[in-house]
């Protein structure tokens, strides 16, 4: 399958051809770009490394060099992307033994990441400041994400046909390829296919907005290419004018989830609403909020027991 490849071929060249043969056209463009980035890193770190020279020690040094500038999780992704190609090289007899066996994954300590979100008062202030006109604009988009917690690509893909106003639900079953050539794509995972309950305000507003629109055309996508930064700039301007914390569109998703958790909605329900693959993802993402709620629960338990 690979052209002119032998044991003396440079490893980064072998890997480039492997990606072209086995990954190009089989995975999303965004995922393909990660494989191509891995290829560029291999070329940078080991420009003269040949396929036949890949031993466990050489491979471990390559991982170690990469880990000097990356966090452990990123190094693990780098390892997984290389491993598929290397195992194929072993199967083809280009490498005698699997050099990735028992690889040690190192990397920088991840920086503490505290998610940005608005409190209930700030979100109320933001929504009141939105300019909801008769025509579609990005303020409508901001309102939808704030009320549903959808991902950016999911909200872009929403069509009038996705709304069931009688049952007060919004179906999520696709995303919009805003990073690539446009068009519908599958959701991030199977759990992302879901129906989101929407409140009566969203029902009233959006039922008027989508009247006369094609059922299968995205509400927020026009002729021009869409950039995440464009919508973030609109949201940032609103935040500054309102005098509240400046957040991104993804921060609105965090805001949505945080308010539900603080309101006492179960982690399982929040996970389903967000389209997380498992509750573990939700717990990891909102750990600090869950810890705050647990502290409140301890106080409640103590008050309840004291009253017995």
Structure report:
- This protein has 308 residues and is mainly α.
- It folds into 2 domains: 11-91, Orthogonal Bundle (DNA polymerase, domain 1), CATH 1.10.150; 120-299, hpI Integrase, Chain A.
- The chain has helices spanning 11-22, 29-45, 56-67, 72-91, 120-129, 138-148, 152-156, 200-209, 228-242, 249-262, 267-274, 279-285, 287-306; strands spanning 163-164, 169-172, 175-176, 184-185, 194-197.
- The strands form 2 sheets. It has a 3-stranded antiparallel sheet with strand order 1-2-5, with no helix packed on it. Strands 3-4 form a two-stranded antiparallel sheet.
- It is globular, with a radius of gyration of 24 Å.
CATH class identity of the largest domain? Mainly Alpha
Number of domains: 2
Q: Tell me the Rg in angstroms.
A: 24 Å
Number of helical segments with 4 or more residues: 13
CATH architecture descriptor name of the largest domain: Orthogonal Bundle
The total beta strand count reads 5
Approximate helicity band: 40-55%
If strands are numbered along the chain, what order do they take across the biggest sheet? 1-2-5
List the helices and strands and how they pair.
Blueprint: H1 11-22, H2 29-45, H3 56-67, H4 72-91, H5 120-129, H6 138-148, H7 152-156, E1 163-164, E2 169-172, E3 175-176, E4 184-185, E5 194-197, H8 200-209, H9 228-242, H10 249-262, H11 267-274, H12 279-285, H13 287-306
Antiparallel strand pairs: 1-2, 2-5, 3-4
């Amino acid at each position: 399958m690979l052209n002119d490849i032998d044991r003396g071929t440079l490893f980064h060249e072998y890997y480039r051809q492997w990606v072209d043969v086995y990954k190009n056209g089989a995975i999303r463009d965004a995922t393909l770009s990660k494989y191509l980035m891995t290829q560029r890193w291999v070329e940078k770190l080991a420009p003269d490394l040949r396929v036949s020279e890949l031993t466990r020690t050489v491979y471990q040094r390559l991982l170690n060099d990469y880990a000097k500038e990356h966090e452990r999780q990123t190094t693990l992704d780098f390892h997984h992307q290389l491993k598929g190609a290397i195992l194929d090289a072993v199967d083809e007899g280009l490498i005698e033994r699997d050099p990735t066996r028992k690889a040690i994954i190192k990397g920088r300590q991840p920086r503490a990441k505290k998610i940005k979100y608005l409190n209930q008062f700030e979100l109320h202030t933001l929504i009141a400041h939105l300019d909801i006109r008769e025509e579609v604009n990005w303020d409508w988009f901001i309102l939808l994400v704030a009320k549903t917690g959808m991902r950016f690509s999911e909200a872009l893909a929403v069509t009038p046909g996705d709304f069931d106003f009688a049952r007060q639900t919004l179906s999520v079953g696709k995303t919009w390829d805003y990073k690539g050539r446009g068009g519908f794509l599958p959701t991030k995972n199977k759990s992302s296919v879901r129906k989101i309950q929407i409140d009566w305000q969203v029902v009233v507003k959006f039922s008027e907005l989508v009247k006369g629109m094609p059922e299968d055309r995205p509400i927020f996508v026009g002729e021009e290419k869409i950039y995440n930064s464009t919508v973030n700039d609109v949201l940032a301007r609103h935040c500054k004018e309102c005098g509240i914390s400046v957040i991104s569109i993804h921060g609105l998703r965090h805001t949505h989830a945080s308010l539900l958790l603080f309101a006492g909605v179960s982690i399982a329900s929040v996970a389903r609403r967000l389209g997380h693959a498992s509750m573990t993802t939700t717990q990891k993402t909102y750990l600090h909020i869950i810890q705050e709620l647990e502290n409140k629960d301890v106080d409640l338990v103590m008050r309840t027991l004291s009253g017995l």
